[in-house]
Amino acid sequence: MTTLYFTLFRLLKRMLCLAICIGAAAHLSAQNQTDTAIHVQKEEDFYAIQTVPIPEGILLEAGGMTFLPDDALAVSTRRGEVWIITNPYMKNGSAPHYRLFAQGMHEVLGLNYINGDIYAVQRSELTRLRDLDGDGEADEYETVYSWPLAANYHEFSYGPVLDRDGNMILTLNLAWVGDHGESLSKWHGWMIKITPDGKMKPFAAGMRSPAAFALNNKGDIFYAENQGDWVGSGSITHVAEGDFVGNPASLVWSHLPGSTVTLKKEDIPDTGEPKYDVAKRVPGLKPPSVWFPHTILGISTAGIINYDVKGKMGPFEGQLFVGDQGQSKIMRVYLEQVKGVYQGIVFPFREGFSSGILRLNWGSDGSMFVGMTSRGWGSTGREEYGLQRMVWNGKTAFEMKTVQARPDGFEIEFTQPVDEQSARDAASYQISSFTYKYHHNYGSPVINQGSCPIKAIAVSPDRLKVRLVVDSLRLGYIHEIKAEGLLSAERNTLLHSFGFYTLNQLPDGEKLALTAENRVNAAALQHQHSMQHEIAKAPAKASKATDVKHMTKQPAAWTKGTDRSIVIGTKPGLKFDVETITVKAGSRVKLTFNNNDDMLHNLVITQPGAADKVGEAATKLGLNGEKSGFVPAGADVLFHTRLLGPTEKETIYFTAPTQPGDYQYVCTYPGHYVVMRGVLRVTK
Questions:
Q1: Which of 98, 231, 403, 684 has the fewest Cβ atoms surrounding its Cβ within 10 A?
Q2: Architecture (CATH level 2) of domain 400-543
Q3: Per-residue b/e over 579-599, b at no fewer than 16 CB within 10 Å?
Q4: Is 587 helix (H, G, I), strand (E, B) or coil?
Q5: Does position 626 have pLDDT exceeding 90, yes or no?
């Protein structure tokens, strides 16, 4: 009996020890899972957007912004007013106060406080505003310099920005005539400078819609350009005296006294080649410093601000922030000079602003003020105008801080040490290249896409840099650099896992020696090629899925013709000129869409309530969107036209749905779907 008792005791003791061990192992496993958990970062975790309230009745369609010495913010509007806002920071919970300083001007799209005075850029002049009696309102509106207008709505004017020599820089928009830009008035399409004594000096030509420009830390000028004729996609470009940056309409004035540009319109070939290649044959033609891939990183490149000592927005000093009017977001640009030529990379930074971003200014506390407007232009932010403030909370996100070109690839610098295992894994990266056509057409599809396999990976000892040896680099091309599989040492995902590097020059220097330790194995290289091949095939699949919904000829079975013929056009403000169409269920419909606007549009008929879903899906088509006309595949799309350029039209035929209801039609060009829509009402 004693022996049996002792045996049972030993058995229970072993079971208890086993249970303790299992529990400890489970706890350790759970702890390890916690320690190795991947933390997904979000923009709002680092950068807050605060709305500055605007009193009812004030239509603050911000065209220009500047801070005054007392830290009040002056904002000019498209309606010709200048408002001065005290306490825009809303300190101690107090509301800001608005005071009307000036009014009665013509669409003020630029404002600056220079040497004790406020300068405003109207459509036709640079105006100095002065309060002579100290009552808080401008008494003197002095014309500093004026230029002619042709009464074309597209003749916008921007500035002034002070250059390093004390001159005021301005840019003048091209007019829009039919389906292309024209310089109907002297010096439109140019960057000009106004000297301190009020004289005008032509500086550079070839601009289409130069809505913003700024100086970097070296005092060099960069201007933002929008997609349009002769402009395949948005970009920023370094502008030096005598440069021609691409749109030949401005060259009608190059023969005038004072012109710094000698090119003529007939000197510019219209071949559809990449702009970089054409520039090699046309001295004076300057390609962009950094391309912004259309619909991915903006559709209407606007406000530029240099991250100087005034700012406080994370560890990106010396870089540029660029706003986008159409997609209501801000991008970040790192620039480097290679062999005297500017190039660099653009990253996403912060989206979710309430309207179309036009102007950016640093506040005295390092926050960024964002002035917005969307009337007539449209934006993903649905408000017609707004004023917001972006504030960094002091926490550093895991980001690609810089990307620099190397003779054999790229070197990426990070804001935090990387996880070495993921950093050395070729599957963490994906690099490809592409470019755009340089031609008279509005915009361009992505062309000449190619794979850039990674041959070797080297991680710096401090794990803050990763060098990639990359095959098939191409000068003048945009290189998409993805690092979706990369983690920080603390298991954070990248806040933004991709950027687009414009490679204008390859630097000299030593190439990385390939070793057994850093070389990417053959299987990984083959996998990279396969992935790139799949990417290249993606747009063809999308087009094939939508072909049956795009009938441009009357079906042969319609022997009695159509039951209903409809013509739809456009009107200003991103709108169709017909908002509701009524047809009978099952009827045969002929629909002609006439794009009489100055930008690209399509017309897509969707299932009831699916317009937002289809529009969002079109935006996500990314680089290949234009190839498929920004029409996503899927059952939510019923019928559609192709993507039409300005003045183009197309007729489609379809049989109306048999189920009565309100079907939506929408332009799915990125950013347009928010406002450009109507209803196809199907009745019994």
A1: 684
A2: Sandwich (2.60)
A3: eebebeeebbbbbebbbbbbb
A4: coil
A5: no
